[in-house]
Amino acid sequence: MAKPITNIAKSAPTEEEKREKTLETVIEDIAQNADSIRQTIKLLQELHDSGILGALNAIIEAREEVAKILMGQMVRPPVTNMINNAMAVAGALTEIDPDMTKKLMGSVTKGLQKAEEGLRSNEKVGLFELMKALRDPDINRAIGFGLNFLKGIGEGLKE
Q1: Whole-number Å distance between alpha carbons of 120 and 135
Q2: pLDDT of the residue at 141
Q3: Alpha helices in the chain (DSSP H)
Q4: Residue partners of 54: CB distance under 8 A and separation at least 6
Q5: pLDDT in tens, 81-132
Q6: What pLDDT is recorded for position 93?
């Protein structure tokens, strides 16, 4: 009668077998992605020919010095002011109704067109024409808008 198997010997792959398996996997990956690899090589060649690749390599090699220069520039008052202003503008834009902004921009465009027409006609505006214009509902609406706009700015400035 045969003896029962009590030990199972696992065959561990040798370093050479591991390398061969890895190499086979890499070759399969290359074969499956041949077009992408060709495009990547072409892109790298274009970057090399234009000098961009060399510049990027130089920046990477000098990354500590570049980081110091960038940080030095970022803490300059004009840059910090710009960042703070951009954040303030972004905050203000979140409070404005998009429909009103769209309407206002359309009105500004139309106003610029009318202003250009007026410049081309080269008509002089006297006191009588100015008083007559105040009765025009469109002009009156724009003046009212402007006065309320200025009032709001004034109220905001006293805070």
Answers
A1: 24
A2: 93
A3: 15-32, 34-50, 52-61, 63-74, 77-95, 98-121, 127-134, 137-157
A4: 48
A5: 999 999 999 998 888 899 998 999 999 999 999 999 988 998 888 999 889 9
A6: 87
Q: What is the pLDDT of residue 1?
A: 61
CB atoms within 10 A of CB 107: 14
Q: Where are the domains of the chain?
A: 20-61, 97-154
Instruction: Give the position of tokens 């499956």.
Output: 32
What span, in angstroms and rounded, lies between the C-alpha atoms of 152 and 159?
11
Q: What is the DSSP letter of 4?
A: P
**Cα separation, 28 vs 156, whole angstroms:** 68
State the Cα–Cα distance between residues 57 and 63, nearest whole angstrom.
Answer: 10
Work out the angle at residue 144's Cα, subtended by the Cα atoms of residues 100 and 135, and round it to the nearest 5 degrees: 125
Q: Are 66 and 57 in contact (CB under 8 A)?
A: no
CA triplet 75, 77, 79: central angle to 5 degrees? 70
126-152 confidence digits (pLDDT tens): 999 889 999 999 999 999 999 999 999
Query: How many percent of the chain have pLDDT more than 90?
Result: 62
